[in-house]
Structures are given as C-alpha cells and as structure tokens.
C-alpha cells in the first residue's frame, strides 16, 4: 500500500527558470548563456548543499573565479533573486488533494537557505507532514544520504513511498533505494502516473 507522496520543489512545486530570469536583465543571448553556465553550474549545487552558506558567499566566490563578469554577477545575485521562484498552482492543488485523501505528504529538495526562507511563505509548505532540505543536511540529491535522512527521520518505508522529481538522476537513485520514482515533466502526466501507481497498490 502506498502511504506517502514526496514532492521535489524546483520545477515541481515552484517554477525555477534561470534562463528567463537572466534574460530579464536585457543581456545579449550569448551573455545570458555564459552567465547561466557560471552561476547555475557546480557552484550553485554547492550553494544548495550548504557549502556556500549564503548568496553573498556564492557571489564572492564566483566574482573571484570570473572577475570579467563581476558587474553582471553582482546584478543577478542580488538580494531579491529568490523571486525567480513562483508557485505552480496546479501541482499545489494536487498535493492538497492527496493530503485530503489521507496520504502523508513530504518534501525532498535541493534548496539554499534563501530559497527555503522564500518558498516557505506558500500555504502548501505549512501543511506538509515533513521535509528534508539539502542546505540543512549538507547533502544534495542524488546523494544517498539525503534520501536516507528523509526515510529515517519520518519512518517512511520505501515501497510505501512515491517520489516526484524533474531530474532523471534523482529518480534513478530513488528507484535504487526502493522508492517509487515518477519523473515530473508536467502535472498532467505526473498525476496520471501517480494515480496509476496508487490504484495499482491500493486497489
């Protein structure tokens, strides 16, 4: 029997579109792509992981590595960058429906401290049964440690748990651990796959 549904945040519960964000500064497309490589690559992963504790730490490190882009990095990594996130209302509605139907609802997300503080304003965040976030664990998906933290902290049984995430590598690790992974590309297909799984196990 499926008892729990776990949601990723970025591109699942909240939109996260760095390229559109960067284009909003009016930069030429070549510069947009270069900034995307610099900002949202390995160092962004380390920020989510908590190795860079704040966006100021990340910006300082990137400016040191890429001084030719210091002005642009200072502009795009300003204090209000978190507004890149906005609620995906269709996924939030499905989460609320599953909650009403009695499933345990959890979050498992690669997330920086600033993103956490911003996203927690949304109503869904206050209704979930628990969550594990990379910056708090110093571990990011698809590292096994962060999945184990979720399972152990809340006593979740892998075979009783469904996980929705937009990253195939994250889904592969969930499957390896015995969690039922569903690759999220859009809400309609994700909902159909989830409902088929729930019917198969609960019918």
Structural class: alpha/beta
pLDDT averaged over residues: 96
Give the total of domains.
2
Number of strand elements: 7
Query: How much helix is in the residues?
Result: 40-55%
- The helix/strand order is EEHHHHHEHEHEHHEHEH
What would CATH call the architecture of the largest domain? 3-Layer(aba) Sandwich
What's the story with the biggest beta sheet? Answer: 5 strands, parallel
Number of helices: 11
Report the sheet-strand fraction: 5-15%
Bulk shape: elongated
What is the spatial order of strands in the main beta sheet? 5-4-1-6-7
Give start-end ranges of low-pLDDT stretches. none
What is the gyration radius calculated from CA atoms? 18 Å
Would you identify the CATH H-level superfamily of the largest domain? HAD superfamily/HAD-like
The CATH class designation of the largest domain is Alpha Beta
Question: Distance between termini?
Answer: 9 Å
The CATH topology of the largest domain is Rossmann fold
